[in-house]
Structure formats: structure tokens, C-alpha cells
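Q: What structure does this chain adopt?
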Amino acid sequence: MRKIGSYISCLVVLMTLVQCKSSYSNAQSSSERLALKNALSNEGIRFDAVSASPQNTAAYNSVANDILIQRGDNANRINLQGQGYSLRIKDDEVQMALPFYGERRLGGGGYNQINGPFNFTGPVKNLQVVTDEENNVLVVELTTQNNTESMDIDLKIYSGDFATVYINSAAHSFIRYTGIVDKIKEEE
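A:
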């Protein structure tokens, strides 16, 4: 009987400790989200890509695995760390410098684009910023366009400044990027 009592006591103490840590991180991430939300309105935010995860199709997989395996990547996740790929949202403008992996659909301005489909500066349209308190996520949704296509961008910012960018385009297959988000510094 004493063993059961000591197990229950340990369980209660453990649950109390877990709850205390959880509430601290929620308060901390709430202030981080508020700071980034304010930065979006003022100095802007910058997303630095760490990896890309393209939509997998049979055609993409058959080509990509042969090419990417030489670098240690695979068709599901491509390492972009340290290569300077980013997305910036400042004022009413989006600056994209992200690589594209995946399939290009018909239309969309040709195959020989000099800067690629996700390397341009475009206008911000339909900007929505929503705080999801239940999941501790700041969600930034917008639409932008380059010379040939329009695309929807969803930026989800989690605690610790970890973020995910989802890009859905009419002329290119879906792609997801993971990385770090921060305020744009004055010298940038």
C-alpha cells in the first residue's frame, strides 16, 4: 500500500513540475509572438530557410532522388542551411529568394526564367495576421505575384522563432520550407 502511495505522490509532483514549465513557455512564446506581430507592422520580418520539402509526385521522385542523393539530401527534405535563402515581408512588399524543387505546371511564363519562380520582389495582397493561442502559433497569410503567376504564402511562426512557409502556386507544385524567423535589422 505504501508503494502505491509513493507512486501517486511522485506522479503528482511530476505533473506539477510539467505544468509549471508549460505555463512559463506559453507566456514566453506569447510575448515572442506579440513582438513579431509588431515587427511585421513596423520594421518587417525575415524568414531564413533551413530546409525545403517539395510535394512528392512520381515524376519528381524519379528525377530528384538520383540528383539529390549525391549531396546527402533526398526528395522529401533538401538541406538549405547556410545558403542564404530567405523571404522578407516589409511594408507592402515581399522579397523572395527561395529555390524551387518540384514540378512546373503548364503556363507560368516559361522554363528559362532568369531568377526562378521564387526569386522576386512583389506586392503584398490580402494580408491576414492571426494568433492561434491554443496552438501557440502566429499565422501570416498573404498573396503575392511575380510577372507571370500569383501565389498564396502561409507563414506559421512557432515558439523559439521556428517557422514554416507554405507556398501554393498555380504554375508550380506545392512546397514547404522550414527555418528561423526574426525582425529585419536596420542594416539589411
